[in-house]
Amino acid sequence: MASDESGDRGRQLCSFEKWVTLQQKDLSELLQALTQKPDSPGYDVLLSQLVEKNIQHFQDYIQQRNGLVHDDVSAFFAPTWCTSLENSLLWIAGCRPSLFIRLLYALWGSRVESQLTEFLQGMKTAGDLGVLSAKQLFMVDGLQRKTVGEEEKISSRLASLQEDIADQPIAVIAKDSTGKGEVNSDPDEALDEHGRAMRGILDEADQLRLSTLKELLSILTPFQAVDYLAATKKLHLCMHEWGRKRDHKHGDKL
Amino acid sequence: MAEIYCGVMSESDASKPSEPNSRSARRRRMEIRRIKFVAGGATSDTTNEEKRQKLELHPATVSRECENAFENCASDGERSHLERDNEKLEAKGISNSNQSPVLSPSPSTTLVDLEVHPKFGVASVCGRRRDMEDAVAIHPSFCRRENETTSELHYFGVYDGHGCSHVAMKCRDRLHELVREELQGREASTEWKSAMERSFFRMDKEVISWNEDLLGASCRCELQSPECDAVGSTAVVAVVTPDKIIIANCGDSRAVLCRNGKAVPLSTDHKPDRPDELRRIEAAGGRVLYWDVARVQGFLAMSRAIGDNYLKPFVSCEPEVTITDRTADDDCLILASDGLWDVVSNDTACGVARMCLRGKAPAGTQCSTESDAGGKIADKACSDASMLLTKLALARRSTDNVSVVVIDLRRDT
């Protein structure tokens, strides 16, 4: 791929590709850690460090991306480096923060079911069952409610911003144009102004993604957290790969 | 601590039974509750004992005092006004049990004590929905009938809202008060059925008049007031007495009794295609149309609910009431919203609940070993059961809010 392109787009693409590569690397590290013997000395510390490291990587990516926005924030809302599949699922240039919770429910769901029979036969206690403890479930539920609320607030502000383009001054500049894009006054100033507001929203969305992930991981035990992080990365990488295949099949993008 | 308890006493004593529901009184209670929760850890047995004695001595104002008593032990009163509060369950269990050493030196006393302190667990989560429309109300010893000094009545309710959450919230805050008024206002020969029906009708009326006067609403549908008529809630209410279980149900939440390991449904879901419900709707001039599932007038997928004024009289708020005698074979009672029942059968739910209760607190052992640990363990078992059922519902991809209440009915003999 054209990672050596110069200009904003090239650097943005490059940043994303590095992020994908880093995720792959992190994933193998996480999976490797999960195969180790749970009773080996310092295991929990190792897992915790791994979780910290992954959070740091996510934080770094957000920061780096933020540095690349400049006056081209729209590139992140509709990234050319992502597949159509990924782009169709974007919420403000990334995943919905509430999706972190859904993934957790899905992840542990299958395990509960498989252990239920043993539990009903008295071979397991309630504590063994279901990976998440009662307390954890309540904290996750609380986090979910908070996250959905925050998400709705940001979504609502995004809606206003999207409506703004049909209003003064942008709509008026368009109205006064010849219809072929030629205009009397320069639209750039208005669009840049709008872009700055969009950038603000992007910042907030990124912060919400980060804080949600951090809080969720803090609810989990180190082992659960590593297991969960591996699942997030698998999901991301798979969606990217599946999207590529589907784009290829449909003849878009090669 | 002493000042706080004095405060509680005088508040209780001063309150007139005729106005137990006044807003200011409730606010005061809430304040006291808050203080107490902070101070909860330091509760002394002596204070509790005094409190208990007082409780036994004044049956006339007992429901108020009971509530306070429960608050004193940082127990159920606190939980009762909250939709979800399980994080505090364990802490409560511990304080709760402070009373036991004083009150239950022998199994017989323990039995009485347990009647005052029903063992229950509650779990209520948003799950895969983005908004929470379920509500749960738990009021141990919410009422005592005037001529029966020993029979405490415990109230449990699960409400599953639709359209918005506010009708469910109103039910959570009010329905038990209405039930209490109906029960206390009549002679002891009170007909359960009519008392429950009157409470539900009054609840429905309150909700509708509140809808009409939307001032003070803080929910989303406030912005769309014409549609506020299209908001409602199911209600499944259990009143547990020492010898009976009274269930009043309206909608598709459900009460299931676990008896000797077998599931005995104590309510029948109100679905529009239930033959008798279909006849009732059509007799009233309504229609049942299918859109995914059977719906009243093509809209609501249940045939009875509190609220939903736009579908009256086809959608009725009249509860179906069942009265069941308690037996020694009873394990527990499960109340839950359809978020559970859609994906977990009655039998599976009973199996899970029974295993949790059996695994944690074998009957009989708790009193003889360490009486103060008994309450805590049992409470934990019920919480485990409600939580495990909730987890199972989520694991089975329930797409709705999930609320589960499990009440231990075993006699510790």
Automatic annotation (TrEMBL), chain A:
Gene Ontology MF terms: sequence-specific DNA binding
GO biological process, one term: DNA-templated transcription
Top-rank taxon, per record: Eukaryota
Pfam families with a match to the protein in the record: DOG1
Positions of the DOG1 domain: 9-249
InterPro entries reported in the protein's UniProt record: Seed_Dev/Stress_Resp_Reg (IPR051886), TGA_domain (IPR025422)
Protein name: DOG1 domain-containing protein
Organism: Nyssa sinensis
From TrEMBL, chain B:
Region (Disordered): 6-33
Enzyme Commission number, as recorded: 3.1.3.16
UniProt-listed CDD domains: PP2Cc
Lineage, opening ranks: Eukaryota, Viridiplantae, Streptophyta, Embryophyta, Tracheophyta
Name the UniProt record assigns to this protein: protein-serine/threonine phosphatase
InterPro entries: PP2C, PP2C_BS, PPM-type-like_dom_sf, PPM-type_phosphatase-like_dom
Family affiliation: Belongs to the PP2C family.
Entries under PANTHER family matching the protein: PROTEIN PHOSPHATASE
Cofactor(s) for this UniProt protein: Mg(2+); Mn(2+)
GO molecular function: metal ion binding; protein serine/threonine phosphatase activity
GO biological processes: negative regulation of abscisic acid-activated signaling pathway
Keywords in alphabetical order: Hydrolase, Magnesium, Manganese, Metal-binding, Protein phosphatase
Domain PPM-type phosphatase span(s) in chain numbering: 119-409
Classification via SUPFAM superfamilies: PP2C-like (SSF81606)
